[in-house]
Design a protein that fits this description.
Distance between the termini: 40 Å
Largest sheet: 9 strands, antiparallel
CATH topology of the largest domain: Rossmann fold
Radius of gyration: 21 Å
Strand content: 25-35%
Low-confidence stretches: 1-8
Strand order of the largest sheet: 10-9-8-7-11-12-13-6-14
Length: 383
């Protein structure tokens, strides 16, 4: 995601990622056509690792760990160059058009193919922050490898650089997913349907990120009774401060967020239109602009502070929000729309989290209402 406040139409950067043979390349033509039908100019950045491998720098010919680190470092440098050039060029050449850049993999994929310590050392040498690199994109959509849930369709025929067995593909897929944990717009598309259904769900997820009206069920939210901490899988913990701003339009909600981890933060402005279909448009803003906008907070509200634990279970992305301040003790588990089952059906929930009830439609647990100043007990005392 790039700061494009001076542009008439900002450049949206969306990562399409996934394990080997997940359908990324095959879905790009469909996604390009559908997004074009909605008025977007679509640009595609091909997979950097495949470009490097097919041009002769082949990882399979490397027999030392230092070679692998240098290989992945070259991918990072080239990936960054591609992204910066595409974002800058499309913004300058087409300033008044809606634009989206689809990337066949993004920066954080690199961490899945090397030791985390080596990846972080590369970033340190360049003065780069992991959180800023991960959250620079407008959205990340992960297509699960066919080896996990559609094994009969797993093949290496459409990619000469692919050598993984189905078992290796599943392990790589899971490492890639974990490398993106914590991104504010992260979606996982599994193999529960045929491939046509899979790419339709992919388009629905991207539509949600871009603010295109789509037949997507709202996020399901569950009031949590207890969390068995020892059962939590690999996860990322994010600190969030959220404030609601005054708006002249009664059908538009404005909110800003400070979001980050390990002392590194990014800042976001979100506009939500609720006339008919709910549409969210989010943009990255600077710290100074965030500080200025805080002064425009709706005086009837107060800041919401929470700790968000992001994790994957059963090929679904979950967010566990633990609130602080007036709502201390309140925890809500959320399943993102792209992963949720059809309306009215039961969603399998992690066995290490005990829930009280579904509060998706409960107005008391709408965050705008939770931010309202009021007397009385907090929702954290809910029994």
């Amino acid at each position: 995601m790039f700061n494009a406040s001076q542009l008439i139409e900002p450049v949206s950067m969306i990562v399409l990622t996934g394990g080997p043979c997940s359908g990324k390349s095959s879905s790009l033509a469909y996604l390009t056509e559908k997004l074009s039908n909605h008025g977007f100019m679509v640009f595609v950045i091909p997979e950097t690792a495949t470009l490097i491998t097919t041009s002769g720098i082949d990882r399979r010919k490397m027999d030392g760990p230092k070679q692998v680190v240098m290989y992945e470092e070259a991918i990072l440098d080239l990936q960054l160059s591609f992204e910066e050039i595409y974002a800058r060029a499309t913004a300058r050449i087409f300033p008044d058009r809606k634009k989206v850049v689809l990337l066949d993999r993004g920066i954080m994929d690199i961490m899945a193919f090397m030791a985390k310590e080596d990846f972080r050392e590369i970033l340190k040498r360049r003065g780069l922050k992991e959180v800023a690199l991960r959250d620079r994109y407008s959205g990340v959509v992960h297509l699960v490898t066919a080896a996990d849930g559609a094994r009969d369709y797993y093949t290496a025929e459409n990619n000469a650089a692919r050598t993984e067995t189905p078992g290796e593909a599943v392990r790589i897929d899971r490492r890639i997913r974990e490398s993106w944990l914590g991104h504010p717009q992260f979606r996982v598309i599994d193999n529960r349907t045929d491939f046509e259904g899979k790419i339709r769900r992919t388009f629905a997820a991207i539509s949600h990120i871009l603010g295109i009206p789509a037949s997507l069920q709202p996020a399901r939210r569950f009031l949590v009774r207890e969390v068995m901490e020892d059962g939590l899988p690999s996860h990322k913990t994010i600190e969030i401060e959220q404030l609601y701003l005054r708006s002249k339009n009664p059908e538009e909600e404005l909110r800003i967020r400070k979001r980050g981890q390990d002392g590194s933060y990014l800042y976001f402005l979100t506009r939500t239109r609720t006339a008919g279909t709910r549409i969210d448009r989010e943009e990255l803003i600077g710290e100074q602009q965030y500080s200025h906008l805080k002064k425009l907070r709706d005086p009837k509200t107060e800041a919401l502070e929470k700790e968000r634990i992001c994790f994957l279970w059963n090929n679904q992305h979950f967010e566990l929000d633990r609130y602080r301040g007036r709502h201390e003790g309140l925890s809500i588990l959320k399943v993102e729309p792209a992963e949720a089952a059809e309306a009215g059906t039961t969603i399998p929930l992690p066995p290490f989290i005990a829930v009280k009830r579904d509060v998706t439609a409960g107005p008391h647990y709408d965050e705008r209402n939770m931010a309202m100043k009021r007397r009385g007990p907090s929702l954290g005392r809910d029994t």
